[in-house]
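pasting for the record
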Amino acid sequence: FWLPGDSLVFSSGVVVATGLLNYPLVLVMAVMIAASVLGNLFGYWFGKKIGNRIYQKKESFFFKKDYLITARKFYEKHGGLALMGGRFLPVIRTFVPIIAGLLHIDLKKFMLYTVLGGAIWIVPVVMLGYWLGQLPFVQHNFGTIILIIVIVITSPIIWQLINQKNKKHST
């Protein structure tokens, strides 16, 4: 969940535009949508399999019960739309399918929202990368641009980790 998926999706569009990846853009997007659906299916299966026992799991650097609670509230508030909208929220996008499995959401309904959400997230981000990847400025500064995207996307997570650490030390 901590991997910067948005930057990877954006990068795929850039590398197709620059010719570094010599596959049709439509194929790249289809494979990425399929991968996102498979990832969500695994999360759904995991949530269904482990059930509420996941709340008993010991917290670690990568796993916080607050992530589950936040994802559950998000899902309960927004229902199936959480599967689509959650794609645009780092960390939430990982835990929403697990919560859907925990709640035993109908698999057909889950699949509909998962496929739609994957397409709604991946197609515009890949296309943005593709269009911008044709600009000489982006081609010459690709590494820096990706680094900036990773920093922007991961900074809320890092900020939260720092705040949690500071709260522990102040109590």
